[in-house]
């Protein structure tokens, strides 16, 4: 049975979340405070973490140091936009309160399914993406990426002939927390291009979205 840890600052919200998850048959444990969450995290298959608190990022960091379980971050709509984007940068998915139980449970299913179905290794010519070690190599050179940069590149490489719309990218990489934030995507694309040193390895299809550059395109621009 899948075990889910819930770390929520609002007792009423915690109770609602636990009830919804147990209703779907999950084994759920609620953490009463940050120390408890850190202790219980290694035993969880998924963590639902309230990142809107003052120490939200610090708690995320401590949990991540103890566990590689995926994290769904939750935050309030009135939270500072830049701060939330920074916190969601490292989460596997992010939800903005208030949200219906149906949306929350769908997100839980998606994150768990992604973990089960994640392709361990993607090779696109000289580009190699290892999902288990979360390493990227291009022409044998290790490319150090942030969590979301890695997720974005892996998404594009998972279906290289497909043009992903910005809406799809925000949903699949950032969990749709800020679906209208084109700046977030552009910032990560620019950073990826610099780190990969092949600008056209990520192609912008104007008015549509992004796709992985064809091998010939990437080599020509290197």
Automatic annotation (TrEMBL):
GO molecular function, one term: transcription cis-regulatory region binding
UniProt keywords, alphabetically: DNA-binding, Phosphoprotein, Transcription, Transcription regulation, Two-component regulatory system
InterPro entries documented for this protein: CheY-like_superfamily, OmpR/PhoB-type_DNA-bd, Sig_transdc_resp-reg_C-effctor, Sig_transdc_resp-reg_receiver, WalR-like, WH-like_DNA-bd_sf
GO BP terms in the entry: regulation of DNA-templated transcription
Annotated OmpR/PhoB-type domain residues: 119-214
Protein's UniProt keywords contain Transcription: yes
Protein origin, superkingdom: Bacteria
4-aspartylphosphate PTM positions: 50
Domain Response regulatory: 3-112
GO-annotated cellular components: cytosol; protein-DNA complex
DNA-binding region of this protein: 119-214
A Pfam family reported for this protein in Swiss-Prot or TrEMBL: Trans_reg_C
UniProt xrefs under PROSITE patterns: OMPR_PHOB, RESPONSE_REGULATORY
CDD domains from the UniProt entry: trans_reg_C
PANTHER family: DNA-BINDING DUAL MASTER TRANSCRIPTIONAL REGULATOR RPAA, REGULATOR OF RPOS
Name of this protein: DNA-binding response regulator, OmpR family, contains REC and winged-helix (WHTH) domain
């Amino acid at each position: 049975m899948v075990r889910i840890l819930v770390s929520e600052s609002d007792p009423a919200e915690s109770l609602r979340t636990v009830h919804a998850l147990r209703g779907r048959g999950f084994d759920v444990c609620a953490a009463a405070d940050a120390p408890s969450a850190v202790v219980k995290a290694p035993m969880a298959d998924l963590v639902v973490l309230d990142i809107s608190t003052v120490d939200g990022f610090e708690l995320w960091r401590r949990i991540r140091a103890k566990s590689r379980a995926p994290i769904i971050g939750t935050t309030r709509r009135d939270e500072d936009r830049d701060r939330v984007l920074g916190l969601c940068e490292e989460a596997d998915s992010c939800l903005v309160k208030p949200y219906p139980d149906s949306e929350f449970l769908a997100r839980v299913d998606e994150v768990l399914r992604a973990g089960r179905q994640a392709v361990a290794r993607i090779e696109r010519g000289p580009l190699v993406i290892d999902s288990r070690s979360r390493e990227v190599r291009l022409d044998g050179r290790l490319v150090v990426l942030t969590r979301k940069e890695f997720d974005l590149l892996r998404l594009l490489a998972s279906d290289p002939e497909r043009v992903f719309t910005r809406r799809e990218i925000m949903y699949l990489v950032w969990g749709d927390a800020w679906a209208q934030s084109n700046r977030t995507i552009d910032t990560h694309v620019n950073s990826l291009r610099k780190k990969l040193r092949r600008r056209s390895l990520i192609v912008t299809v104007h008015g549509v979205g992004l796709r992985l550059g064809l091998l010939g395109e990437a080599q020509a621009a290197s």
